[in-house]
Structure formats: C-alpha cells, structure tokens
Design goal:
mainly alpha; 3 helices; elongated; membrane; transmembrane; DUF983; transmembrane helix
C-alpha cells in the first residue's frame, strides 16, 4: 500500500485537541476525563469510546516540563538574588520547593497536550490504522 492509495481523512482540530488534553479531557469529545490517575491515560474514553491507549507521550512531557520550569526558575533565581541577596540556604530551599511544585502542576497538563496533539495528527494508531514499519 502506498501513500497515494491512503484514504484522505478530514483534519482534526489541533489547537482544540491540545486544549482538551491539557485540561485532562478526552481530545475527541472533550467531556470525559482522560486520566485514570495522576499521569495514567485511560485505555478508552468513557464518554465517546475513543481509544486512547495508542498514545506514545513517553519522556516528551517530562523534558518539556523541565525545560519550562528550569528557564523560569533560573530567571527568578537570578532576579531575586540580585535584588534581595538572600542566604544560600533560603534560596535553595525556596527554589527546590518551587521547582517541585511547578513540575508536579505542569506535568499532567503537558502530557495531556501531547496526547491531544497525537490524536489530532493521527499519530501512533490514532488514525484508525496501525503504524507502519519503516521500509527497508
């Protein structure tokens, strides 16, 4: 089967799917919860029945979370140090706690956005067909 013989499927709304996923909702219907735990994605949507087990978010959300939190924390750390000159112990304790809380808040949001993007782009089996093996 070649790419030319593939049926043309309608586009799925990328932004809407990512927003739904980021809010923890099914990227297809937006009604039912997508997560069965903190980061565990349900196998199927309880609202519309969409299969969600195809997702392959893997380490992407963790890397993006670290990237965002570290950039924000670095700028804040430098600014607070330059303005107030707090003790090292206070600075370390405050920013370790803040980075931990920010990471725990952002991680499920970013993972939901990743799953929504994969659904909208029909990646990893979300298009109704299994992924093809690379041709030799």
């Amino acid at each position: 089967m070649t790419a030319l013989s593939d049926p043309v499927l309608p586009d799925r709304p990328l932004g809407e799917a990512m927003r739904r996923g980021a809010s923890g909702r099914c990227p297809s219907c937006g009604d039912a919860r997508m997560f069965s735990g903190y980061l565990r994605v349900k196998d199927h949507c309880s609202g519309c029945g969409e299969a969600l087990h195809h997702h392959r978010a893997d380490d992407g959300p963790a890397y993006l979370t670290i990237l965002i939190v570290s950039h924000i924390a670095t700028a804040l750390l430098l600014a607070i140090y330059m303005i107030y000159r707090p003790s090292t112990e206070l600075l370390v304790a405050t920013f370790l706690g803040g980075a931990l809380v920010a990471s725990l808040i952002l991680l499920p949001i970013i993972k939901g956005g990743f799953v929504g993007m994969q659904w909208a782009k029909r990646m990893h089996g979300f298009g109704g067909q299994p992924d093809r093996a690379p041709e030799p």
